[in-house]
From TrEMBL:
Molecular-function GO terms, alphabetical: metal ion binding; peptide deformylase activity
Keyword NAD: no
Protein name per its UniProtKB record: Peptide deformylase
Binding residue positions for Fe cation: C98, H140, H144
Gene3D superfamilies the record matches: Peptide deformylase
NCBIfam families, alphabetized: pept_deformyl (TIGR00079), PRK00150.1-3 (NF001159)
Function: Removes the formyl group from the N-terminal Met of newly synthesized proteins. Requires at least a dipeptide for an efficient rate of reaction. N-terminal L-methionine is a prerequisite for activity but the enzyme has broad specificity at other positions.
Catalytic reaction equation(s): N-terminal N-formyl-L-methionyl-[peptide] + H2O = N-terminal L-methionyl-[peptide] + formate
Pfam families: Pep_deformylase
Catalytic site: E141
Co-factor binding comment: Binds 1 Fe(2+) ion.
């Protein structure tokens, strides 16, 4: 499938709480393919969530393996349907960006480690313990499923929001 158009803030779908997926069917499998293709086509993208391409269901993908920040510590491509964080640990503040907010980055506080339970693209239940950059990417994408953007989590609007110099 071709990469899909990313919705840009302030599109109202980006602020929507997404519905659980009742069953993994052909429509959801196509959505997963679209998410993967869109993530891989995005400049520097390590994840994308369904609402970013207009679908209001609880599906997202994360793959930090090609990123210099995540290539040493990752689970490869994670297809997450109905994900939920079951454990959080530690905290850190780091710079985040988002394809739906291409002109800005910001300092956001996140857990340094998370355990997430989800269904994979085949409907199998999985539980993954992620740390570092992968944990941050998972939290970022899962926030999209709750209608939360990194802009909502900026540690300080006065000192923690930055205009992006280039989007690569």
């Amino acid at each position: 499938m071709p990469a899909q158009k990313i919705l840009l803030y302030p599109h109202p779908i980006l602020k929507t709480f997404c519905n659980p997926v009742p069953a993994i069917d052909d429509e959801i499998r196509r959505l997963v393919e679209d998410l993967i293709d869109t993530m891989r086509a995005g400049p520097g993208s390590v994840g994308v969530a369904a609402p970013q391409i207009g679908a209001t269901v609880r599906v997202c993908v994360v793959d930090v393996s090609a990123s210099r920040l995540g290539k040493e510590n990752n689970h490869g491509l994670l297809v997450m349907v109905n994900p939920e964080i079951v454990r959080r640990e530690g905290d850190t503040i780091g710079r985040e960006g988002c394809m739906s907010v291409p002109d800005y980055t910001g300092d956001v506080e996140r857990a340094t480690a998370v355990t997430v339970r989800f269904l994979d693209g085949d409907g199998a239940e999985r539980e993954v313990a992620a740390t570092g950059f992968e944990a941050i990417a998972i939290q970022h994408e899962m926030d999209h499923l709750d209608g939360i953007l990194f802009l909502d989590r900026i540690v300080s609007l006065k000192t923690g929001l930055f205009r992006r110099k280039s989007y690569k």
